[in-house]
Each structure stands twice: as C-alpha cells, then as structure tokens.
Write a structure and sequence with these properties.
3 helices, 14 strands, eight-stranded antiparallel β-barrel, 278 residues, Porin, two-stranded antiparallel ribbon
Length: 278
C-alpha cells in the first residue's frame, strides 16, 4: 500500500509541477536486474535474474535537443549462487527497489516526414536517489540482512552498517516514437552506477565467522557463510565477494501524454531526416 500511495503522490505532484507547454506525463513498465557479487561474474550485464519494474515520470522538453525528466521507479533486485553453481558459498538475496531520478535526455536526430510524428533516438544521464533492503531466505521466511551485520558491521575493526538509501548515476539509451501530437511511445534501457557494494549484502571485506557469531549473533553468522559447517575445522576467515561496486539496470516501455495538447515540439516541418538544433 505504501508503494501505491507513493506512486499516486508522484503522479499528482508532477502533473501539477509540469502542467505547462512542452511537458509530458507518462508511465513505464519493464524489468529491473542486478549485477554484483552474486552474478555469474561480478561485473557485467546479466539477464539471469529479471524482475518486473514499473514507474511514472514527467518530461519537460526544453527544445529540440534537450529534455529533463523527473521519474519514480519501483522494482526488485535478486541474485542466487544456486543459479551460478557457486555451491561453495551458498548465498542469495532479494531486495525491493525504489528510485527517484532527475534525468537529462539528449535527442540525437529525428526520422520522419511530419512535424508531430517520427522516431527519435536519444541518450540519457542524470542522478538518482534509491532505496534498497536486501533479504535472504531462512527457515521458510525472509530475513532482513542489513540489521544483522553479516560481515561484522558495527563491531570493532569492522565497517559501520551500510546505508539503505544512496545515490546513483543513471545512464543509457532509448528511442521515442511520436505517434501524434499528444502521445509518445518509448523504449529505454539503462544502468545505474552505484557507490555501494552492498545491494546484495556482500562485499570484499575480510570476515571472521567467530567475530560475527560472538558480536552479532548466530543468525548473522549462519547467513554470513551458509556452507561453513564446522568453523573450528575449516577456515573461519573469508571474503564473500569481489572488489567492484554493484550496479542495477532498468529497462522497459514508456508511454507519455503531452499536457495541454500542444501541437509542436520544435521540430519544424520535419521533412525527411532532421537533426535537432536549438
């Protein structure tokens, strides 16, 4: 219910803020996916774990070339060692994802003979604030990982607990199909450069099982290394992940409606292929 209310508030707020000439309001439906320590390889784009994502946005067209977009995206991120045959580690996670973003779009050119119809490829980049909250399956339920301190967070000589709300930089590509003077259908895909290695609760920090057990409890120690059956006989000091920060990706279809029914988006006659100019 909280997500639905946030989504509704965003729609009402942005429609009021951008209800002027050159503005659009729209919705997005697609997928979200994760890249990190629990991926097939730590760094890269993988489609093994895709989950539904949806969102809403407002776009303000500043001219032929540049547009600004304010967006809300809600999705899910997940990873599982069982899907990549990492039987030596046995880690898994899932996390809700909520992202607020301010994105700039750069239109590259327009294909189309008519002023209010055509196809426009574009690049985008910006800044986002996102919230995540990793969980792991345990005993038939899901347990929130950040409060546990599975890598000794909060203990002496260990890092402080990581923040669940952080900043990311979105960047990617898309294409807009101007169907008429009021409706635009888009397709977009982009990555989010984060500054955390804890989307999955797994980092490159060195961890000692007994430190976690004594300081943060049995559940934290168990979820820190589920395959460690006899810590006294095995190596109780380990690194669970690799050196790179995590990424996440969002892609999907976007449907937007121009407010106030304006007829021109600044492309002139649009005959043939037009290159955007200010």
């Amino acid at each position: 219910m909280k997500k639905q209310l946030t989504f509704l508030f965003f729609l009402v707020f942005t429609s009021s803020l951008f209800s002027q000439e050159g503005a659009e309001i729209g919705i997005m439906g697609g997928v979200s996916l994760y890249s990190g320590d629990l991926s097939p390889k730590e760094f890269g784009l993988y489609f093994d774990e895709m989950d539904p994502a949806f969102g809403a946005f407002s776009r303000f067209n500043l001219g032929k070339t540049v547009a600004l977009r304010l967006g809300l995206t809600i999705g899910k991120l997940a990873g599982n060692d069982a899907n990549t045959d990492r039987l030596d580690r046995g880690l898994s996670f899932q996390s809700s994802l909520t992202e607020f973003s301010l994105i700039g779009e750069v239109n590259l050119f327009k294909l189309g003979r008519y002023k209010d119809k055509g196809m426009i490829p574009y690049l985008f980049g910006g800044v986002a604030i996102f919230h995540f909250d990793p969980e792991a399956a345990f005993d038939g339920d899901y347990v929130k990982l950040q409060p546990l301190g599975t890598e000794g967070q909060g203990l002496p000589n260990y890092p402080e607990p990581y923040q669940l709300t952080q900043v990311a930089f979105p960047l990617g590509v898309g294409i807009k199909f101007m169907l008429n003077e009021s409706i635009t259908l888009g397709l977009e895909f982009g990555g989010r450069k984060t500054f955390t290695d804890y989307l999955d609760d797994v980092s490159n920090n060195e961890v000692n099982y007994f430190d976690v057990l004594e300081g943060n409890g049995e559940l934290a120690a168990t979820l820190s290394n589920p395959t460690l059956t006899d810590p006294s006989a095995e190596n109780a000091t380990y690194r669970r992940g690799g050196q790179y920060d995590d990424w996440y990706y969002v892609g999907g279809f976007m449907l937007s409606f121009r407010l106030n029914g304006g007829s021109s988006r600044g492309w002139g006659s649009g005959k043939g292929i037009g290159c955007p100019t200010f």
